[in-house]
Amino acid sequence: MSHQYSSLQADNTLGLESRARKRVLAETPDAILSAWNNAKRNNHPFILLGEGSNVLFLEDFTGTVVLNRIKGITIQKQDEVWKLHVGAGENWHALVKFTLEKGIAGLENLALIPGMAGSAPIQNIGAYGVEFKDVCDYVDVLDLNTGVTQRLQRDECSFGYRDSIFKHQYQQGYAIVSVGLTLRKCWQPVLSYGDLSRLEPATATPVEVFNAVCHMRQSKLPDPSVMGNVGSFFKNPVISHKKAEQLKLASPGIPSYPQANGEVKLAAGWLIAQCQLKGFRIGGAAVHQQQALVLINAEHATSEDIVELAKAVRMRVGEKFGVWLEPEVRFIGAQGERNAVETIL
Fold first, then answer.
1. pTM value?
2. Can 17 be counted among the known catalytic residues?
3. Which of 136, 141, 180, 199 has its CA at a distance of 20 to 30 angstroms from the CA of residue 59?
C-alpha cells in the first residue's frame, strides 16, 4: 500500500518527511467539498492545510490532506475604512505587502507571519501588539457536512490568545474559505514592542513599521525554506499576577506583559534561553541559536526528534520556573489532530 502514498515534505515548513494516502490541491470550495465526500465515503481521515507552517506530522497520515488554494482579493473603499475580502489560500505576507502597495495600512505589524490568510483566524495570529482579531470583520466557513457556507462576524469567532472557535466547535468538518478585513483609513501606528518603540509615532509611516517588523523577524527567525521550522513552537505562557510577582523576585530581569484581565504574559523564548537551551539538540532537531522559541529541523530531523526536543525544553523550563509551556503548533497523528500537550508530557 505504502508506495501509493504522496510525500508531504514540501507541504510542512518543518520539512519533515511524512506522507499521506491522498494529497489534493483545492482551488475552490467545491474541490474541498468533493475531497471531503470522497474521504467520508472511504472512511478515511481528512485534514485541511494552508502552507503547513503550523503543523507537526507525527507519522504518515492515513487519509486525505487537502491544501487550501482558494485565491482572490477584493478591496472595497468606504468613507472611513477599507473592506477586504480575501480567499483563504492567499499567502498572508503577500497580502500584507499587497495592501501596503495599494496605500492601505493596518497589517504591517503582522508582516512575515508564515501561512495563509485562512489560517490566520484559527490561531488568531499576532505579533508586535496587533492580533488578527483587531482587523477581522468576518470569517466565511464552509460546513463540509451540509455544503452550506456561513459568515461568522468577528464577535462570533471567540478570539483569544492563539485561540478561536475554529480550534473548537468549528474544527472538525469545517473549512475556512475566505476572511473579511476592515482597515481604518485613519491609521494609528502600534509601536509598543521591540525596535518599533524607537520609531517616532508622529512621523512613522506604515512602510517604516513594515520594514522594522521584517528586520526584527528576519534577524531572529530562520527562513523555513533554508532551515525547517514552524516559527514559534510554544505559546507565550499567561500566568497569574501573584505567580508573576514571585518569579520577578527570583529572576528580576524577567520580561512580563500585563494583560487586560489582570494576568501576566511571559516570553517563552526568554524562559527557554535562561535554561541555557539555545543550540540544544536531540537527533536532527535543535533549539535555534538566535531565538529559543523556535525549534528547527537542523539535519534530517524526524518527528520523534522534534517531540523529544519539545519534551526536554518543556521539562527544563518547568523545573526551573514552575511554568509549563504548551505548543502553539498543531500535532497531527495518523488519524488526525492529537493533543499537543499530552504528546509531550
1. 0.89
2. no
3. 141
User: What pLDDT, on a 0 to 100 scale, did the predictor assign at position 2?
Assistant: 46
Question: Active-site residue 232, yes or no?
Answer: yes
Name, in order, each residue with C-beta under 8 angstroms of 177's C-beta and a sequence gap of 6 or more. Answer: 29, 32, 68, 70, 87, 88, 118, 140, 141, 142, 149
Please identify which of the residues 162, 217, 314, 316 carries the catalytic annotation: 162
Task: Give the tens place of pLDDT for each residue, 129-145.
Answer: 999 999 999 999 999 99
Asked if 251 is an active-site residue, the reply is: no
User: Which tens digits make up the pLDDT trace of 226-284?
Assistant: 899 998 999 999 999 999 999 999 999 999 999 888 999 999 999 999 999 999 999 99
- 88-97: burial string, b at 16+ Cβ within 10 Å, e else: bbbbbbebbb
Residue 71, phi then psi, degrees to nearest 5 = -100, 175
CA distance 183 to 137: 9
| 163: amino acid identity, one letter | D
Of 291, 341, 338, which Cα lies nearest the Cα of 318? 341
- Sequence-separated (6 or more) residues with CB below 8 Å from residue 75: 82, 83, 84, 102, 104
Map residue 117 onto helix, strand or coil: helix
Mean pLDDT across the chain:
95
